[in-house]
Design a protein that fits this description.
Blueprint lengths: L4 H15 L14 E5 L6 H13 L9 E5 L6 H9 L6 E6 L1 H8 L9 E17 L7 H10 L2 E5 L5 H13 L3 E5 L3 H9 L5 E5 H9 L3 E6 L25 E9 L4 H15 L2 H10 L3 E4 L1 H22 L6
Helix pairs in contact: 1-11, 6-11
């Protein structure tokens, strides 16, 4: 399948950022703390994984500098993403890059574009899951699908035009389900809506909801991976459930401002590689529901381009744009 014009342009821009020339960096890099900018509030998947990365990454950082997580939330990620894009390209500001960096400039007015970032490495691919409250009458995905074809179900998503909202639109297109969307401004509010029975279901990234499913406060009915996951025994895939969506995952990785020196990018990419090989890190991430998916800068750039291709179709079909 050919790439869309958006994806073709993005591919060129992102790969150029990966392969392009960059200024020289001091030999003693890093000589001070490296900030990881999390463009969301504390408690969500990006914040949680960033803090886990900092904990294990600091074992390899030496004595001159540490990884420090800094939350700059607002605008569905735009506030922190803009801050990172405009930061000095010296290797000391890293963006916790998520799928929203791709879609925000398409859907909203932003002061940055994807090409303003240089991909460093991917560390996690987080599949979408369909979730209901512990007291929900829907005990199996087939029951929920049947109900959603008969009438619109209320579904909470982390904002309109987010990847989670688009996952719902993809289900409507592919499975004939009908939804009434109830957006929230954060994971906590979304979780409370499901647990409290204020909505009939929620669309979440697995990593954010798994510990609550393990605790029995919510139930995961289906996961958007191409194969069933060992950490979710008895939970079918969307495809096996007849939803005609093979895979829907968001990504998490590191990016730096365009123009950041090659040496800094290599150091940070190698650092993520070392962290990803740490058995204790792998276990903690897996237990939390964040599957390890390390890719270097070039591999991460390809993931970004592929995601743009998938979401571009949904954005165009549904005319998604932020309302003024």
């Amino acid at each position: 399948m050919g790439k869309t014009l958006l994806s073709k342009g993005l591919a060129v821009a992102v790969l150029s950022a990966v392969l392009g020339a960059s200024p020289v960096l001091a030999a003693d890099y890093p000589s001070k703390d490296v900030r990881i900018i999390v463009p969301f509030k504390p408690g969500g998947g990006v914040d949680t994984t960033s803090r886990i990365l900092a904990e294990y990454g600091n074992k390899h950082m030496g004595k001159k500098g540490k990884l420090v997580v800094e939350n700059r939330a607002g605008g569905g990620g735009i506030v922190g993403q803009t801050f990172a894009a405009k930061a000095k390209a010296d290797g000391y500001t890293v963006l916790a890059m998520t799928s929203s960096v791709v879609t925000n400039p398409v859907l909203k007015e932003t002061e940055y574009k994807v090409a303003d970032f240089r991909p460093v490495a991917l560390y996690n691919m987080d599949p979408e899951v369909i979730v209901v409250g512990a007291s929900s009458p829907f005990t199996a995905i087939a029951d929920l699908v049947k109900a959603a074809k008969a009438r619109p179900l209320t579904v909470t998503v982390a904002g309109i035009a987010t990847s989670h909202h688009m996952a719902g639109l993809a289900l409507e297109d592919s499975a004939g389900m009908k939804f009434t969307y109830v957006p929230t401004k954060g994971f906590g509010a979304q979780l409370q809506a499901v647990m409290g029975g204020h909505v009939e279901m929620g669309l979440f990234p697995l990593g954010e909801i798994k510990k609550h499913a393990d605790a029995g406060t919510v139930r995961i009915l289906a996961v958007a991976t191409d194969k069933p996951m060992k950490i979710l025994p008895g939970v079918p895939t969307w495809q096996d459930s007849g939803l005609n969506v093979k895979r829907w995952t968001t990504f998490r990785g590191w990016a730096v401002p365009k123009g950041t020196p090659d040496k800094a990018v290599k150091f940070l990419s190698d650092l993520l590689g070392k962290i990803s090989a740490d058995e204790a890190y792998v276990k903690q991430m897996t237990d939390y529901g964040f599957p390890i998916a390390y890719e270097d800068a070039k591999g991460f750039a390809e993931v970004v381009t592929d995601y743009a291709d998938i979401t571009d179709k949904v954005i165009k079909k549904h005319g998604l744009k932020e309302k003024k």
